[in-house]
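Mods, move this if it's the wrong board.
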Amino acid sequence: MSKTIGTETNAKVKTQSKGKIIAYWTVTLLLGVALMLSGIGQLMRYGGNVELVTNLGYPLYILTILGIWKVLGVISLVIPGFPRLKEWAYAGIFFLMTGAALSHAFANDYSNHGFSIILPLIYAALNIVSWALRPKSRKLSYLSNS
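Not the wrong board. Structure tokens:
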């Protein structure tokens, strides 16, 4: 009887671990694709990016800065290794997205039903979920014991 319980427990742990990895990559890739497309759009000054930043009162060169940060942040999240760089990327993405939401709020730019504020906050939440689900191999060694 103990062998059956032990086998079921081991199978359950492996399934949860595999599910966590699938959830991590799903959230991380969703966030990565959204940020990569946004970053490339900003670098190319595509769509309404120029109008958006000028309406918020920022200079146009901010598009280049934000676009580069987004692209490099996504690359650092998906490549293997470099756990310290990943921690910085997660922090940077969080500040970038919450800063975007606050910029829209302070400029009274709520667009349709607050979409300009809600979307960056959704990306910030996906960022937090990705960070929380990351595998041990993507954590700093002193953080992996927790």
